[in-house]
Amino acid sequence: MQKIEVNLYRYNPEKDRFPYMMSYSLDKPKKDIMVLDLLNMLKEEDESISYRRSCREGVCGSDGMNINGKNGLACITPLSSVIKKNKIELRPLPGLPVIRDLVVDMTEFYAQYEKIKPFLQNDTEAPLQERLQSPEDRNKLDGFYECILCACCSTSCPSFWWNPDKFVGPAALLQAYRFLADSRDLKTAERLDDLSDPFSVYRCHGIMNCVSVCPKGLNPNEAIGEIKDMLLKKKKNIIVSDG
Amino acid sequence: MSEILNSKNIQTIEFDALIIGGGGSGMRTSLELAKSGLKTAVVSKVFPTRSHTVSAQGGITCAIQSADPNDNWQWHMYDTVKGADYIGDQDAIEYMCSEGPKAVFELEHMGLPFSRFENGRIYQRPFGGQSKDFGKGGQAARTCAAADRTGHALLHTLYQNNVKEGSNFLNEWFAVDLVKNAKNQVTGVIAFSIESGDVAYLKAQATVLATGGAGRIYASTTNALINTGDGLGMALRAGFPAQDMEMWQFHPTGIYGAGSLVTEGCRGEGGYLINADGERFMERYAPNVKDLAGRDVVARSMVLEILEGRGCGENKDHVFLKLDHLGPDVLNSKLPGICELSRTFAHVDPIYEPIPVVPTCHYMMGGTPTNINGQAFITKDDNDHVIDGLFSVGEAACVSVHGANRLGGNSLLDLVVFGRAAGMHIQSELKSGGGVNSSSDEDIDEALLRLNKLNNSSTEFETAKVKRELQECMQNYFGVFRRGDYMTKGVEQLKEIREKVENLSIKDNSKAFNTSRVEALELQNLLEVAEATAIAASERTESRGAHAREDFPDRDDENWLCHSIYDPQTKELSKRSVNFEPKEVDAFPPAVRSY
């Protein structure tokens, strides 16, 4: 029977002074399985292993982790697509404090999300029915509203590692653009003002890790580009009107 | 040995209202309470946007008169009553269908990114069991959709608006058991922070169970791993009843092997099922509406095809859902999520090939019985007595709008309509001086018993193994088709499984993010739900809606046009009358249900 070797990041704050890598050897599964299935098999052997999981189909965003060096969702990553020489290494998402094993503290990530005011703002009186929106305007949200907040993108971003408190990060910027792009939202100017400091958006240097890891195939870099564009146009307009 | 927890060594945190569960219904309730000034908290074992509402795909059914300006909520009500095989409460169904448009428009105002028609109105698609003019006017298109990611859009929108209103969340906290006082009033829950392991008594005047379903009692389910019926488990352990627990919906199209849901919206958009001969077999079982018959009808037809040897694949154990004729444009714009799931889990691209599917456990029609205000109750001699302090909403509750079979798209509507209603009721009740008496230290200690026992148990019973036994038992004996002698076996087997479940042991006693402790507690909840299901299913001696018995193939209105009420203290089943008294319209009398 062929074996596979799983190297797993372990840390239990009650027992371990430092994190360490632990190696597990398993029979190679007969059919291709997802990385989450692999973790579930390991947990049956060693129940002290901790990780988050919920939907097991790539829509809830619980099980983002670093798989052989690249962030992804364990539940939709086939083992065959990542395993190399029968070895696989699983680590927590980089750059966030580790609570235990593969579980990271996402407080800072969520704080950036809340900072961009991730809700529709429209103070006009609501009609008795829905607010109308043309299919063309609605299409502008495609590729932006589908984010599942798994944090794979932000935690793969060196700019976010440097300034997790000041750089909004790709995930929250994607959300920021989702509302900037929504024809029903009326706070475009205020939203842009909130993002106009040197850190919030401008710390993005187009490294594109966010695009390469997004498990939903979204493009935060495009959203960031659009925001920068809007900021630039807004600034120009102000100069023009001043002059 | 772990320290024995008691009322003296744990913290007490006091709230006005406590909502257990951060999915669609819980967050709709909390949103209603956020503006009230009441001290409220949502206790969720996962970050709210990881709740199972996120997996809902096809949409939210509601007569908003967009696809059809002449649509009528009474037609929706008729479809729902018929879909429920006449044991849905008609006052509740009337409330849901008539209040629905308001609730859906509110969601749109909150920012939910619905798909749109050319005129700018919300896109609606056809779903199973929908009709115009009380079944006489042909297929309706009543399901409001955000592509095939409506649940995701809805859940995120609700979370975003809770952020906007400053709702208070206890994220990654696990509720263990209800605390009751001597008057049998519910005064909050014992819960612990999963991150730190610290246990607290969360004291409240109103405790809302919004914990969703428990599809994980079955081996094959569309449900998330977290759907373990925690609220219902707590209620049953506290001695409170459950209603219609035999009614479990098997969704016709779960991906073969993986269990992931493939929305009914696929068939709404024109997809259909085929057997090994390539035949569109639903034409035989439901000549009028074919693939858009009720889910129970379609699921049974699929199983019959497989049993009669016309299943697909090497083992002839599934059928195919054909979508390729819809073309890449429709698939990419209306069903992008399905394309993604099929490629990942079935290794097929629906643009070119059909998706292998089988009926898969999907939804719990039963639950804690409640009235329209979300108040849980106990039934004695066919009279309902409200349980002070206890509420339930969403899939965890049985209000009952789904009866014996839920219509597609009615689940999301249920969440927002009754989440909102419960929030409004709690607000007015607490503001007018309602509430509960305090619990004594002994009451709190009693609610800590289960956790103490688990923490100090050292048996050989391991969660993962026992869970598999439970799931296989339910799958084998309480599936799409049921039989008395098999079910008796299943009930016996569950007794043995109970011994193990009550004596589970965890090897890892650490506090911080100990997911094996959580999983053991979840399995104990699953067992309570499974046992209620098994006993209710064995005792309902008829076939109705999702409950199909080979030994009692016909509906029996004389004896069973009623709810079943399972009493966890005696493990006995009693009957409760169905409501046939809607307020504004005439009741729909039971009729033969054909599609």
Structure description:
The complex is a heterodimer of chains A (243) and B (595). In chain A, 33% of the residues lie in helices and 14% in strands. With 243 residues, chain A is of the alpha+beta class. Chain A is elongated, with a radius of gyration of 21 Å. The model of chain A has no long low-confidence stretch (mean pLDDT 96). Chain B is α/β, with parallel strands linked by helices and 595 residues long. In chain B, the strands form six sheets. In chain B, strands 1, 2, 6, 7, 8, 9, 16 and 17 form an eight-stranded mixed β-sheet that branches. Chain B has a four-stranded antiparallel β-sheet with strand order 11-14-13-12. A three-stranded antiparallel β-sheet of chain B has the order 3-5-4. In chain B, helix 1 runs parallel beside helix 4, helix 13 runs antiparallel to helix 14 and helix 13 packs parallel to helix 15. Chains A and B meet through helix 4 of A and helix 3, helix 4 and helix 10 of B.
